[in-house]
UniProtKB/TrEMBL annotation:
Name this polypeptide is given: Methyltransferase type 11 domain-containing protein
Origin species: Potamilus streckersoni
UniProt KW Transmembrane helix keyword: yes
UniProt cross-references to PANTHER family, sorted A to Z: METHYLTRANSFERASE LIKE 7A, METHYLTRANSFERASE LIKE 7B
Top-level taxonomy: Eukaryota, Metazoa, Spiralia, Lophotrochozoa, Mollusca
Matches recorded under SUPFAM superfamilies: S-adenosyl-L-methionine-dependent methyltransferases (SSF53335)
Length: 261
């Protein structure tokens, strides 16, 4: 009888301990969820900071081509550019800006700020005006017609609402200002790669902070109301050809707000 009583007491203690544990988790659930989210953002920033160095080398030709439009604009204006870089990440694009460009970096992940500042310190030829934590879809803290250029590289795949983001890009651009972009996009509808993208997309979005494999970014840009749009299709030249097939389709180009300067 004593043995049975001891076993029952042990079960009761176990159930009580389990209930207390569940209760504590439930009570502190907001703090736990917040901590997990913050650590996920920190890990993503740390990983991308290292990964973007390789991506920058892969995209060097395309970036050098599209960033030349900023050099041309700077020459036409006769003064250093004011540029907004949307979704700047660790700011590896600092390699490509014209001398004395004044840059505002917009980035939703707060853990990228230290990497942005480190990169700015390495590039004495440009000026980092400030780092703003925020999203492309709502930039009401930035004034209308306040930038000569807006830059997006590998960003439009992750914004929640590309139409609203492009409306904001147009709003903050000065008349005659230029929007330049380099993006990976959805493959041709119905193609083998497009089918793979659709299959992979749910998992990819979860792992890569909302990155969307099936977004037709070119169509969004063409329909955004810019006066002059130039888009070039290309294939990202990754290693591991079969493993990266679904993120190869890409575009780069520019769009002008209003009349070209």
């Amino acid at each position: 009888m004593a043995k049975i009583d001891a076993e029952i007491a042990a079960v009761v203690r176990y159930i009580f301990s389990f209930a207390v544990g569940i209760g504590l988790i439930y009570y502190f659930r907001r703090y736990i969820i917040s901590f997990i989210k913050s650590q996920k953002l920190r890990l993503f920033a740390w990983t991308l900071n290292r990964f973007m160095t390789k991506i920058n080398k892969i995209l060097r030709k395309e970036k050098e081509t599209v960033f030349r439009h900023l050099d041309s604009l700077c020459e036409k204006l006769g003064h250093p550019l004011t540029v907004l870089e949307v979704g700047s990440g660790p700011a590896t694009n600092f390699d490509y800006y014209p001398r004395r460009t004044e840059i505002v970096c917009l980035e939703p992940n707060p853990y990228f700020k230290s990497y942005i500042e480190q990169n700015a310190h390495k590039h004495k030829n440009i000026s980092l005006s400030r780092v703003v934590q925020g999203f492309a879809e709502r930039m009401d803290y930035l004034e209308d017609s306040s930038f000569d250029a807006v830059v997006c590289t590998l960003v439009m795949c992750s914004v929640r609402d590309p139409r609203q983001a492009l409306d904001e890009v147009k709003r903050v651009l000065k008349p005659g200002g230029i929007f330049i972009f380099v993006e990976h996009v959805a493959a041709r509808e119905g193609s083998f790669v497009n089918k793979i993208q659709k299959m992979m997309n749910p998992v990819w979005k979860t792992l890569c902070d909302g990155c969307n494999l099936t977004r037709n970014t070119a169509k969004y840009i063409q329909n955004a109301g810019f006066s002059d749009v130039n888009i070039v299709n290309f294939q990202l030249q990754w290693g591991f050809r079969l493993l990266t097939l679904f993120i190869r389709p890409s575009i780069y180009g520019y769009a002008i707000k209003g009349t070209r300067i």
